[in-house]
């Protein structure tokens, strides 16, 4: 009996031994995981900034906190440009230094095969071979007249532009007609002593700057008139080079109205999608189902999201009662918008529509230099 018991115990201990070893190995693995089990990170080198000392410090920090390695990504985040442009010999020296330091520290190192977030860009892609966006410019003329002028250039990037068509059509009622002078429109902003008249000078290159908005500290652009006016459509255009790095994000808020400039009520929500609006500036356009008569209208910005939310710039407030397609930038893929919902927008009135038969194709009359000659009808 005693011998059997001892023998059975010995067998049992022998059977448990592998499990004990496995448990010890698992515990050791958690405490000090092998390289292939450690997390790795994207290692951003922003806007051509980088030094050998900084690279060494970053990699040593990664090793110290237990990471297994990193992948170098050269990205643009709109901070001041550094002295080491992507693809240059000095940049290659930094990559080689990073590789040697990663080897010294026992870290894996990867390298994205091109600059940017999408892996589709690089200096080898010519502007005419890149992704394209349809842009436009417009010019209002009064007929009858002999027109012989240079047409304004549509927005363009990297010096590349090609004409598609030149179209003329009778201006719809109210389109292009500013608010009458006797309304004496006055624009003010929430941010200090700035010349808000820049917002109604018909110049998209002049702007005012507003701080980053929040619900606790909203920012606003306000239009005040000498007497009440019936507003049906109003638009605000942001400057195409925001002051801060708002390149991927949005601004949100609501359009408000007031009779006295003190008590405001909400008319509609708005959202300005700034993400990748690189060819033309983003626009906030609000169209009401029925005109609202008031003396004060205010764009109240309450939210802002992006990498490093900060100040933003407003270029123009358009007081012309012109019909627009809501969210046109998003619908034409001129700006990336996440979660764009199908909305029941007000239909244009009969006098706001352009009859297809009234459109005149003047493309053949445009010279290679962009000059148009045409006898304008009444």
Question: What is the strand and helix layout of this fold?
Answer:
Blueprint (H helix, E strand, L loop, with lengths): L1 H30 L8 E7 L5 H13 L4 E7 L13 H17 L2 E4 L33 E6 L16 E2 L17 E4 L18 E3 L8 E20 L10 E10 L5 E10 L9 E24 L5 E7 L9 H4 L28 E2 L9 E6 L2
Parallel strand pairs: 1-2, 2-3
Antiparallel strand pairs: 4-14, 5-13, 6-8, 7-12, 8-11, 8-12, 9-10, 9-11
Helix pairs in contact: 2-3
- Coarse structural class: alpha+beta
Task: Describe the main β-sheet briefly.
Answer: 7 strands, antiparallel
Radius of gyration: 31 Å
Number of helical stretches of at least 4 residues: 4
Distance, first to last CA: 121 Å
Low-confidence stretches: 1-17, 243-247
Helix percent band = 10-25%
- Strand residue content: 25-35%
Shape, per Cα inertia axes: globular
Count of beta strands: 14
Order of helices and strands: HEHEHEEEEEEEEEEHEE
Mean pLDDT across residues: 82
